[in-house]
Structure formats: C-alpha cells, structure tokens
Write a structure and sequence with these properties.
Helix content: 25-40%
Number of helices: 11
Strand content: 15-25%
Radius of gyration: 26 Å
Low-confidence stretches: 36-43
Mean pLDDT: 83
Largest sheet: 6 strands, antiparallel
Distance between the termini: 50 Å
Structural class: alpha+beta
Oligomer: single chain
Order of helices and strands: HHHHEEEEEHEHEHHHEEHEEH
Shape: elongated
C-alpha cells in the first residue's frame, strides 16, 4: 500500500511538472494536489532541481530523490549510536564498539594556475586516542637513541635492519622516522618504501625525536584516493563522546587543508561521517576549516 502511494505521488509530480509549464493549467495542478496538503502547501517552483521535493512525504522513499540533510556532527553521531542499537551485525562481539569513519570529498583544482594539487599523504595528530599505538622504527645515533627509546620507539634501526626490510625479512613496523644524519644510509629503502619513506615535509625527519614520535605513535594517517579525490580515515569509536570525536575530526580537517593554498579556493567539498555497516551522514564542516568565518566567530 505504501509503495503504491509512493509510486502514485511520483507520477503525480511528473504530471504537475508538465502542466505547470502552461499558465492556464495551474488551477488543474492545484486541484490534483489538494488531497495531499503536505505537498500542496509548498509552491511547486520551490522544489530543488533534480529532486522530487525537500523532504519525503512517506516512510518509504528513494534516498537519491531528496536532498541530504546537512546537520551538526553531534546530531549525526547521535543517529549512528541509535542505529547501532538495532542494526544487524554478524559478529556483535567483535564489532561491539564500531569505528567512526570520516570521508572528505576534495576539490584539488587550482583555477588561476590551471593545474591540480598533487595527491598527497600525511599524518595528523589527534587529541584523543582510540586504538593501539603504532609501531615506529627510529634511525638515530648518539643521544637521540636514548631519547627515542624513552619516547616509545618500537626499536632503533641499523644497517642490518635496512637489509632485512629490503629482503622482506622484517615487516613488524608501521612507520619509520629518522634524524637528518641517518638519511644517507636510508637511501636504499627509498624505492621500497616509496611515499612512506622518511621526509621532512611529512614530519618524519628531524632532530626533535619527542615531537616526531608523538605524531607517528598516536597520529592517524590519511591518503588521497585519486579516482574520485577523497580522503577516508577512521577518527574514533562510538564509545568516545561527541566532543572527543568532534575534536579528532577538527584536527584531521586542519591537517588536510594545509595541502592547498587558501587563495586557490576551498579544498573540501563535502564531509560525511559513518560507522561500520551503518549509514553515512553529511555534516557542517565549515567551522573546522582553518581561517573560516565561522571559526573566527568562535
């Protein structure tokens, strides 16, 4: 019954769209809409282009036929938690605390220079941890070795370890950081590691071991997917509070926005938050972008 009603309404909208193109047919269109007061209350010209209306009139509808509701991120997280209580999961004992994912649709074009921002990868420091620390190898010498071990480095690298990594004999690590004096010895790994090779631009080469290790031990990595430019990364767990997840999201957006000059236009086109096997929700991200008007008002 509900499906029949929805199909009738869809056909009705098509008839109305045709009849309203002729001024003398407007009274007929209004007569057809009279039984449906929730539809007739809005002027037909206010319907967004490419959609059937601003909001669905029934509980069964096609999502792509109505514009998405863009709300504050806390409202989206509340909806995810509500859905988590009833959504089916094959192994609930494993996914009892679902991971929250952030997806950013990007605009890499630079209009004035007629070129694009190169696809990038990076590491963002987040204020609230939600997973185990990364395993980081540190290539250092002298006093920096002791400092690195005190800061939580997984192990200190040497020439023997370089050969093991080259031959795939050692893979129990996530990231590599190094002091500038050790970079010459790491050159054989450049082709092997590619974009994860230590670089001062990504903050993995430097003399401040404490800062580097704090970033790579507890930070989250992000990478641009090139087919449709976007970044998809985990930012927390549903067990975290809305404020904690929001602060993690803010830190990640600030890190991503550093890869495009502000004068070249906005980098982010759309922001969506979701969780494992749960719906995605668009949220208002403008206040998290560095230098935005909403951020200045705060």
């Amino acid at each position: 019954m509900v499906l029949a009603k929805a199909r009738y309404l869809e056909c009705l909208f098509r008839v109305i769209k045709i009849t309203t193109e002729k001024p003398h047919c407007k009274p007929l269109a209004r007569t057809l809409c009279r039984p449906f007061t929730n539809i007739a209350s809005a002027d037909l010209q206010d319907v967004p282009k490419g959609f059937d209306g601003w909001e669905p009139v029934d509980d069964v509808y096609r999502i792509d036929r109505y514009p998405p509701k863009i709300r504050h991120i806390s409202e989206c997280l509340d909806d995810l938690r509500a859905q988590d209580k009833w959504a089916y999961c094959r192994k609930p004992e494993i996914y009892s605390d679902r991971t929250v994912n952030l997806s950013l649709l990007l605009d890499l074009t630079i209009p004035l220079k007629k070129k694009q921002v190169e696809p990038f990868i990076g590491m963002a420091a987040i204020p609230h941890k939600f997973k185990a620390s990364n395993k980081v190898i540190c290539f250092a010498e002298g006093d920096q070795v002791t400092e690195a071990m005190n800061c939580g480095a997984h192990m200190i690298g040497d020439e023997a370890l370089i050969n093991q990594i080259l031959n795939d004999e050692f893979t129990d690590y996530d990231y590599i950081v190094a002091s500038p004096s050790m970079m010459a010895g790491l050159l054989p790994l450049k082709k092997k590691l590619r974009k994860t090779f230590p670089s001062s631009k990504r903050g993995s080469v430097g003399v401040d071991m404490k800062k580097m290790l704090a970033l790579y031990l507890n930070g989250i990595a992000y990478k641009v997917q090139t087919k449709i430019p976007h970044v998809n990364v985990a930012v927390g767990k549903l067990s975290l509070s809305n404020t904690q997840i929001e602060e993690n999201v803010k830190s990640l957006i600030e890190a991503v926005c550093t890869h495009k000059p502000p004068a070249a236009g906005p980098l982010i086109r759309k922001a969506t938050v979701s969780a494992f096997l749960l719906d995605g929700h668009q949220f208002k991200y403008e206040s998290y972008v560095p230098g935005s008007c909403e951020e200045e008002d705060k």
